[in-house]
Amino acid sequence: MSFRPLIAICGTTGVGKSKLAIELARALAQTPRGHAQWRNAKVINADSMQVYIGLDVLTNKVPLHEREGVEHLLMDFKRPGEQYIVGQWVQAAMDLIDDMHRRQEIPIIVGGTSYWIQHLLFPGRLAGEDISPLPPAVRMSLDEASLVYSAGVGLQLHTLLTALDPPVAARWHWKDTRKVIRCLNIIKDTGRRPSEIFDEQSKDVPKPRYDSLCFWLYSDPEILKHRLDSRVDAMLEQGLLDEVKALINISRGRTDEPAGEEVDFTQGIYQSIGYREFYQYMTTPGAGPEEYALAIENMKTSTRQYAKRQIQWIRNQLRPAIEGADQGEHQTHMYLLDATGEPFGLSINLM
């Protein structure tokens, strides 16, 4: 049995995940030579928005001077208009982890996209590639779905998914276009209903890919609410609107999109909180203080809602997978850390 160590840090936005990751990495790097086999660490980003180049304020990246020399991988390498999905990230992270283990370095996975972290920790949870033949009419409908998706017609996509797989369609609101199209792509690629695949996975005992120590940073919701609101205010002071404006220009330059056209907020960096909320304000001639205040409030609301969804995924998906895992060849454990206090800090001593 080969020991394959990994540290994962998950939690909502605004609880100090990156700060803890940097402190852990520095502590491991300071371990005296000969005291431990594993004596260095690097951070691997698991935030789906921080993979994009630039836009540091919009995506809440840790500034370089605050990383304290700790190398951050899988960050700042995709162009804003590019799609980057979970399977691509998992493979890239696995390749980096293999290389780090050969160098006796411990990977520290940190980010708010717990869905990515879960698929890294447990293999075999993504839809397979065993493509079965589909009726021509169904495949044609799915091909057409790709076209209407580009136009942002979410209701048509959800109607199609309801016809093909009612149980899984009932999970998502028709406006949740990204998840709806993911389910349609599973049908198209595998010839199977996503609900059947998900049901099979729920009955399997997950086998960890690594020997993982997972920290769940949790904050009292009321405290977190005020912290997130303050974070939005700070982002505006740090130049959020400049980044939104630059992203609008990139989008129009990439698609030749005339002003006033419907924008697809489900692709790449355009999903980021802040872009959608300020797009209308910044593209509406004559928009004034009232529209600006509304955009701020909408961004704060979206941020709080996102934090709730992050908690729901960890509580309902990631934690049960870890607690029910097959602790055989590799073991995985989760610990809850109270991050309610502000600022969050942890004294680490590995001596």
TrEMBL record:
Could you tell me the EC number(s) of this protein?
A: 2.5.1.75
Database matches in SUPFAM superfamilies: P-loop containing nucleoside triphosphate hydrolases
Name the domain of life this protein comes from. Eukaryota
Protein name (record): tRNA dimethylallyltransferase
* NCBIfam families recorded: miaA (TIGR00174)
- GO molecular function per UniProt: ATP binding; tRNA dimethylallyltransferase activity
Its recorded reaction(s) are: adenosine(37) in tRNA + dimethylallyl diphosphate = N(6)-dimethylallyladenosine(37) in tRNA + diphosphate
GO terms (BP aspect): tRNA modification
Keywords for this protein: ATP-binding, Nucleotide-binding, Transferase, tRNA processing
Q: Does the keyword Cell division apply?
A: no
Can you name a GO cellular component term? mitochondrion
Top-level taxonomy? Eukaryota, Fungi, Dikarya, Basidiomycota, Agaricomycotina
Q: Which InterPro entries match?
A: Dimethylallyltransferase, IPT, P-loop_NTPase
Pfam families referenced in this protein's UniProt entry, alphabetically:
IPPT
Q: Which family does it belong to?
A: Belongs to the IPP transferase family.
Indicate whether Transcription appears among the record's keywords: no
